[in-house]
Amino acid sequence: MNRPFRLGLTGSIGMGKSTTARLFAEAGVPVWDADAAVHALYAQGGAAVAPVAAAFPGVAQAGRVDRARLKTLISEDKQALSRLESIVHPLVREARRAFLAAHEMAEIVLLDIPLLYETGAEKDCDAVLVVTAAPDVQRARLLDRGQMSAAELDLILARQMPDAEKRARADYLIETLSLDQTRAAVRDLLQRIGQNIGAHHA
């Protein structure tokens, strides 16, 4: 295999995905973050600003997409989300291709994609890691942050593929119980993938 092993990372909101991605980065693995890519596309000079502004007049302010306005618009218009996705998803895929081209000498790369299964991105991965936690742990983490109400959380969860389905489709699972346990699980997984890559080359 003349390219890096592509490990997809996903998991429902509050499952510890961002922390897990950070632990891979700390272990020296190049990480591509789909959310960060979208933020860059919406920022000043971002490739999504002009097409999104054309499709949704009034959402661009000072040369960038106003995410709060966009969120309001999507909640009011049932068709808006699919129109937005048809603009943004191809640009995100392009950003991912550029990342992969820039890291073609790496042994393993991590693709951190919240809606990995929902967008069919698993087809571009060699394996998928799903991070998970018990439902009560998930709810407690999110509601304790004070950034959303229980009703808002239920709305987000209703839009995401259920955790059980993600777990069933995963190649690897990490239950994020504690930071130390998750760090150990990441190290263990990198070792296993490294051995598999070695076996293929042997």
TrEMBL record:
<keyword id="KW-0173">Coenzyme A biosynthesis</keyword>
<protein>
    <recommendedName>
        <fullName>Dephospho-CoA kinase</fullName>
        <ecNumber>2.7.1.24</ecNumber>
    </recommendedName>
</protein>
<comment type="similarity">
    <text>Belongs to the CoaE family.</text>
</comment>
<dbReference type="InterPro" id="IPR027417">
    <property type="entry name" value="P-loop_NTPase"/>
</dbReference>
<dbReference type="InterPro" id="IPR001977">
    <property type="entry name" value="Depp_CoAkinase"/>
</dbReference>
<keyword id="KW-0067">ATP-binding</keyword>
<comment type="pathway">
    <text>Cofactor biosynthesis; coenzyme A biosynthesis; CoA from (R)-pantothenate: step 5/5.</text>
</comment>
<keyword id="KW-0808">Transferase</keyword>
<keyword id="KW-0963">Cytoplasm</keyword>
<feature type="binding site">
    <location>
        <begin position="14"/>
        <end position="19"/>
    </location>
    <ligand>
        <name>ATP</name>
    </ligand>
</feature>
<comment type="function">
    <text>Catalyzes the phosphorylation of the 3'-hydroxyl group of dephosphocoenzyme A to form coenzyme A.</text>
</comment>
<dbReference type="GO" id="GO:0004140">
    <property type="term" value="F:dephospho-CoA kinase activity"/>
</dbReference>
<dbReference type="Pfam" id="PF01121">
    <property type="entry name" value="CoaE"/>
</dbReference>
<keyword id="KW-0547">Nucleotide-binding</keyword>
<keyword id="KW-0418">Kinase</keyword>
